[in-house]
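Sequence in, structure out. Go.
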Amino acid sequence: MAVAALLLWLCTAAIGAYLLVTALHAGNAGREPEEPVPVSAEALARAVAAASRHPAKGRGAPPEAQPRLSRNERDIFAPASLRQARSEPLPGLKDLAEFTHPALAMIGIGFWLGYVVSRDRLFAVIGLGILLGAICAGVTLFTVNARAARRAAADADSAPAATGTAPLTASPLVLILHAAGATLTLLFAVLIAVRA
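Output:
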């Protein structure tokens, strides 16, 4: 049963690797070199005028007199991808989940392989814990990607030029296979860890 769980985990990891490669390929194929963002002379003049009228705090101006500009308004020369990353509710969450999901899955496979070889229950429990962490990171990654796809679709409807977020490129069937494999692997691992 432990070998079957290991093989199922490896198949799930292979499907996940396929998802990762196709997502990377789709993201690189549609992305062209970013052109400089045109800034209107009016926006530049407003930013310069606001900066000259309200000097920095250290120069004696009261904090109430300074205008409240968002971070994206202060940096008018920031590329579109940086502005979009700054406007996310939790910046960097997608990158973190994109790294931790496959990393935890590979580490968990290593511990599960250690259990299959040695039959030491500690390896099974550690592998199960790491599997739970990988599944949580995968659910987070799916949620963040789905939110980004909805935001990109809304941006595409409102503006003709989207700002770098590609919609979900994975086939729903492949996503369902990956999720079903992870669920079955978790079920097998729990049964083995409880029984062992």
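Check: Residues 115 and 123 are 5 Å apart (CA to CA). Confidence is low (pLDDT under 50) at residues 161-166.
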